[in-house]
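Exercise 7.
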Amino acid sequence: MKSIMKTWLWYDWMTVGLRTLWLLIVGMTVCINLSLAALLVWVTVISALVVYFIPLIVKYRDENKYLVVEVLSAGTFYLYIAYFSSELLWSFAILVIIIGLASNPKTYVWAGISCGFIFPIVNGWISNQPPLELVVSCSVSFAMGYAFNVLIQSHKQAGIIQEQKQLLEQHLTKIEELTLKEERSRLSHELHDTVGHSLTSLIVGVESLRSYVPVTQIERIDALVSIGQHSLDDIRKHMYQLTSTPLNDSLSESLLQLTQEFMKSTGIHVNFRVIGRETLVIQKMSFCLYRCLQESLTNAVRHGQASEVSVQLYFESQQIRLQIEDNGVGMESSEFGFGLHGMLERLELLDGTLSVHSQLEQGTIVICTIPLQAERIQGTIRLLIVDDQAIIADSLKHIMNQHADFLVVGTACNGQGALELCEQFEPDIVLMDVHMQGMNGLEALRVMKQRWPTMKVVLMTTFEDAMEATTALENGAEGYMLKSTHSKEIMEAMKLIYRGGTWIDQSVAVRVFEVMKRQREVLEKIVPNDPYGLTKRDREILEQLSNGMRYKSIAAKLFLTEGTVRNYCSTLYSKLGVSNREEAVELARTKSIL
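Solution. The predicted structure, written as tokens, is:
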């Protein structure tokens, strides 16, 4: 009944209110009528309760029988009332209104005749009252109820029409979105095959001429490359409707912008200084330091209660050092919580370090360092360049061969040619285009990873594609980059990948993580044929519990918050039908759940 009541609308409550009002009138009138015997009073009250509840019960069990039961119960009750309490006959009009509300075009004729004429005439005859007055009052009451029912039905129809209108609008919106996606996909392919390849060829070709032009003309080379890269960026923004991010600027400008936004939003004074001559760094380093500063500023306010923060960015000969110092309350011990742990992991991926110094009432100092020069490469990095545009392949070969750390062992124009050269030279890294005639980059990647698992493969493309990048990484690629990436950044990325790292172009990284998140959510769906309805995440949590780990340790291992782990465990216990950790572990062992 409660579930039914939750679906009631205002007119349903109004109907129940009218019934309740009628019951109170009958009960009070009968109880205060001193001329009636006690037995008659009780019989009348019980009969009224039957008339009140039985039609309601029938209504929510069999809608088709409700109106018949309502008319017969109300009419019979008033034939009974007419014998000893004719002063209550007027209240019959309340039930007639309810009957009118419940009528429809198929039933209003017989219901109206019964309640508006037959029962009032019989009641008047039994009670020796003029039947015309009862007929008029009951007929008017039925007309009022039915008219109000028409209004209710109109309201329902309007609601249905509005809902259908919204569904239609949503449908049209979806059609529009699909049309736009289809058109954008068509435009993307056209731009990729024409303007994109042309601009990329120009950028790489001009870059390869750098060593042949006089020093006085280097600025022109830089200007031409910059124009080409900006043109590609503009096309990319139009294609994907991307907004510019702070990391499009230099490292110092990005960090300065972050501190300025932080000051505006918090009112905390931040003093930012750059020490040393700024050098170009790969976006992966910039993003890492950006996140480290972001986390440190947040901690300074949230935990340290600081009123002033000092940020120094040092460009040294061998490393970049970011130092964040605040005047907050400090802490007794520098425990690596979730935020600091994430910073440490980011830095370690780039061979960097994190140190935190703090004392009570003396503030906190966070120091992040990333080496600028990779550890000395043993020998040279042997590269294979694969691209169906000869000018790009030759230009990249020329650029990479100018540096002692790299040796291009060959170039190929498609995936099949790349496999033949891999068989012959077994390069350290394959730098390969995604879209090529014949065997494309993704197809070649799968074969390479099957035949040479330790060989590192980096895919290149003109325009980023999140699904394409995700597929590449899932198939074992160590990198995904744009052809318009600066040559120095390409070389730093190659060194990072050679040392065991992974490199994803920053402009597509966020969307790659979103795709992976959605895929992870799919993986966490209920395991097929699981009698307890456990998800893969539930089983993972249960396994950690079976290993004796506490919530805090599980949170750190699975990169979750402790509160999230507690919620997972609560749901897990409910599914297993247990009340605590010990019972869950015991059930897992006895039922061989894991």
